[in-house]
Design a protein that fits this description.
Elements: E1 16-20, E2 23-26, E3 31-34, H1 37-40, H2 49-61, H3 73-85, E4 90-96, H4 99-116, E5 124-128, H5 137-142, H6 146-149, E6 159-162, H7 167-170, H8 177-195, E7 200-205, H9 222-233, E8 236-240, E9 264-267, H10 269-272, E10 279-284, H11 285-293, H12 308-323, H13 326-345, E11 351-357, E12 360-365, H14 381-391, E13 394-395, E14 397-399, E15 402-403, E16 406-407, E17 409-413, H15 421-438
Parallel strand pairs: 3-13, 5-6, 5-7, 7-8, 8-9
Antiparallel strand pairs: 1-2, 2-3, 4-10, 9-10, 11-12, 12-17, 14-17, 15-16
Helix pairs in contact: 2-12, 3-12, 8-9, 13-15, 14-15
Bound molecules: pyridoxal-5'-phosphate.
Residues 39, 98-100, 103, 132-134, 206, 210-211, 240, 242-243, 268 line the site of pyridoxal-5'-phosphate.
Length: 439
């Protein structure tokens, strides 16, 4: 008996009652290795004593103060930390409660920027197919996952989509990675010219595509070219680092590895590590200045933005990551995870691609390795993999994404940054058994 409308109405969910480090426990005392951090959220694992202590201290001082009346100490401290660590040009932070809200706010900020600048005719958003930016209507409009969008299409705002940078599927045998990256980026320029350069607000992209494609990193040079194209036409670059940001790829921001800085960047999951719901938009100085010298306010706002408890938890999470040099562990364990995945699945008949960055890795499952033909969606392979993994005490994030309009399958791995080698080995062993049992 349940009074909750769960994500899946049919079937039973175990009841989570505890967690410690990389593990979660259910009411039967069964332990699950959290190899996906839920949905790439739990970057510090569970029940970290320093974060719990920081939350207790904040709860005893002040749980909530509405942001139209007050700012708060943890919010100011967290914003300062984020801006100081952010890519070049970022000057301010706008807090929200999660990833969809962050993308939604970034889209509105980008539009208002052009209104403030006297260019109200700019109205188009360009994004990519096979991307996920959240489930609220604006963010869903930007996203390219057809399965998620389909029935809501009449409610969505008009958004234009180009192909993602997806080497496994789209790089031609006769071109190298660099040439492919330039060809993929050219689609943006073509789309801007087609729409009219002075009508485009922004281009939105996940640096490493998460839930919809399974940890697909760009080829080298792709984002540099994207940045150049945006600059050429005065189009803002919004990066969605909700899933791939905050250290998950081995650097605090994934885009650092592409050598570019965005105008707006959305962050969430790893920011609070699941200890509290929190997200943020980091914005460039010129956007802040346009608001400051123009209307004097950003026409947006949520009741829980800058929530002191959420900011205190996120501040503690970020302090622990820095103090314990956990990004070094992300890089080291990421390399180990990649090597173990290669060893186990490198010749697997149904694993077409192994890719990712840092502790953000994906496997693409295919019916035929030679032709890259996806499995029949009716098989619901991703659901079977998840079930088999859970039966073996393993949490992974298998999804049925969209491949060129068809449904495909991938498995996403995003273990906590504190993971060690023996645990990585166990994750790969259990995942191999689960995939073989599911197929
Ligand atoms: N953007 C990306 C890249 C995501 O992966 C997600 C969630 O998976 C979101 C946005 C939406 O975040 P939330 O579920 O916190 O609203």
């Amino acid at each position: 008996m349940t009074y909750i409308l769960h994500r899946q109405i049919h079937g039973e969910l175990p009841v989570a009652v505890g967690g410690r480090g990389v593990e979660l426990f259910d009411t039967n005392g069964k332990a699950y290795i959290d190899a996906s951090g839920g949905a790439a959220v739990s970057c510090l694992g569970h029940n970290h004593p320093d974060v719990v202590e920081a939350m207790k201290r904040q709860a005893e001082k002040l749980a909530y103060a509405h942001t139209s009346f007050f700012t708060s100490e943890p919010a100011e401290a967290l914003a300062e930390r984020l801006v100081k660590a952010a890519p070049k040009g970022i000057s301010h932070t706008y807090f929200v409660s999660g990833g969809s809200e962050a993308v939604e706010a970034a889209l509105k900020m980008a539009r208002q920027y052009f209104v403030e600048m006297g260019e109200p005719q700019r109205r188009h958003i360009i994004a990519r197919r096979q991307s996920y930016h959240g489930n609220t209507l604006g963010a869903l409009s930007a996203g390219g996952n057809e399965w998620r969008r389909d029935q809501f299409r009449p409610l969505l705002i008009e958004t234009h989509h180009i192909d993602p940078c997806y080497a496994y599927r789209h790089q031609r045998p006769d071109e190298n990675a660099e040439a492919y990256g330039l060809r993929a980026a050219q689609q943006l320029e073509d789309k801007i010219l087609e729409l009219g350069p002075d009508t485009v607000i922004a281009f939105v992209a996940e640096p490493v595509v998460g839930a919809t494609a399974g940890a697909v990193p760009p080829v080298s040079g792709y984002f540099k070219r994207i940045r150049e194209i945006c600059d050429r036409y005065g189009v803002l670059l919004i990066l969605d680092e909700v899933m791939c940001g905050m250290g998950r790829t081995g650097t605090l921001f994934a885009c650092e590895q592409d050598g570019i800085a965005p105008d707006l960047v959305a962050i969430a999951k790893g920011l609070g590590g699941g200890y509290q719901p929190i997200g943020a938009v980091l914005l460039a100085r010129r956007i802040y200045d346009a608001f400051a010298n123009g209307s004097g306010f950003f026409q947006h706002g949520h009741t829980y933005m800058g929530h002191p408890m959420a900011c205190a938890a996120a501040l503690a999470v970020q302090e622990v990551i820095e103090r314990d040099d956990l990004l070094a562990n992300v890089r080291e364990m990421g390399a180990h995870l990649r090597a173990r995945l290669q060893a186990r699945f490198g010749n697997h008949p149904h694993v077409g691609d192994i890719r990712g960055r840092g502790l953000f890795m994906g496997l693409e499952l295919v019916a035929d390795r030679g032709t890259k033909e996806p499995f029949d969606p009716a098989l619901k392979l991703h659901a079977k993999v998840k079930k088999e993994a859970m039966a073996r005490g393993l949490m992974v994030y298998p999804m049925g994404g969209t491949i060129d309009g068809r449904r495909g399958n991938h498995v996403l791995l995003a273990p906590p940054f504190i993971v060690d080698k023996p645990t990585v080995d166990t994750i790969v062993e259990r995942l191999g058994d689960a995939i073989d049992a599911a197929i």
